[in-house]
Write a structure and sequence with these properties.
Length: about 575
Amino acid sequence: MTWIQPLDPLHNLTLSALVGMVPVLVIFWALIVKKTKGYKASLMACAVSIIIALTVYGMPFKLAFLSVANGAVYGFFPICWIVISSVFLFNLTVKSGQFEIIKHSMAAITTDRRLQAMLIAFSFGAFLEGTAGFGAPVAITAAMLVGLEFDAMYATGLCLVANTVPVAFGSVGIPIAVASQVSGLHEMQISQMIGRTLPILSLLTPLYLVMLMSGFKKSMEVLPAILVSGGSFAVLQFLTSNFLGPALPDIIAGIGSIVCLVVFLRFWKPKTIWRFVNEKRPLPVVKDGYSINQIVTAWSPFLLLTVIILTWGLPPVKEFLNAKGQLQFAVPGLHNAIADSKGVPLAHIFKFNYLSAAGTAVFFSALAAIPVIGLTYREGITVFGETMKQLKFPIITIMSVLSFAYIVNDSGITTTIGVLLAQTGVFFPFFAPILGWLGVFITGSDTASTALFAKLQYVTATKIGVAPVVTVAANCSGGVVGKMISPQSIAVAAAAGNLVGKESALFRFTIKHSFIILLFLCLIVFGQAYWYTWIIPPPISSTGIVGPLPVNPATPGYVWLILTTLVIAIFIAVIKLTGKKTSA
């Protein structure tokens, strides 16, 4: 028999929603007040969610158990798989000694911590979000900053804050594609609406990051660089999202802002070099110490990562890999066993896409990099074992967080909270980003948040006479702010920044910034709904626009894989040959 989620189990929507908020409040209480370790806080929230689902919502025990188990499995794959692969890739560069060269090459560009944070946490992180997403950007950039001898707490906190503006366009625009499917709006229209909102944050984010690090006065010392970094990113994000579609804004804006800032720093330098209090002297530049070949070799894991992830994201490649390497099945006992309040069965399909997953792309990048950076595969196996040992508690945390997310969704708790916010009438546009924020806080994914609330956003906006694209886009935009405090993101960042057990401190570092930026977004969206409506893009029919430039679908996926393999093989051969010449 199918169990139907009760929308208002206590026959008072406000009271039902307040009870539903208890598991969320438990996480806040555990991390902020009690300063509990991340995995303990997640397990506590999950336990409270199960109790409320069973007692208040009347969810059958079997379904609750299966929901929690399904969340835990999804937490391990694909989420933990991405984190494991990302940290493994970074640990290989450290083990080989190549990260020392990376540090010196960064010092050659700038030894100023403020500028390094903009390059890595903001620009490079945005590029990674556009290609991989799902935790990889925070894992890689946080590990890199800690490796550059940043203060660990600031490094991970900065990466979480920086990983906001690119999230809506993450993973080649998947959140917007899902929002389009659920709401019925054309994805190009949603892309345009978000592309007229987030560039404001993109322009301000580098300034916000530097102010967090050094304060307002010190941030003014590098204001020209801040404007170049944020300005170039914002302009490119606006242009690509409005004229090419949702697939490329992060990739183009991330690369563009890196190039613009690096070129700018060749002609401009800050008057003083800023570093953290009690930090050692800045890393000296090794003049004539490293050849171009050595620098390229050191950066090769990340160059290979870029090439492979871009290839993995191509539609023909993804389709080919899914056809050859994906196990897809209905979750026994759970698929269509739960229906929403309208009686529509909820599908529970588990996709074990072990070839097309972003984590697999990162893992193959690491494998390809092993011979390039001078390690043997035996040493690589050892590093992988050390990585698994390093991540044992973060894996528990992530799995328990996803169990929590699945049980609150499957029981109907999330829907109850969403429906309450939808009853705010003309004030709903103000609360629309909060729905997205809540969805990402619970699930850790802007994609999952849009799947939960995009239809609700569309229907509510239509009822109150507001353009639906405003609130649907606000769900994606608000979700990006929830990313920095999502327990899943906190766990990933803590693992990469060697802060396992200090998740509560990291949560306290980011929570106030999440609320500040969320309030800013709420005001922007409220203004878009009623005051400056000229910014809203016109409706687009399903056949009215070409949309983003597609990859030629006639080119089979295996051809792209062969070409990528040849590029990597040539790259490795060139590195090895030039390396021999250099040593000679």
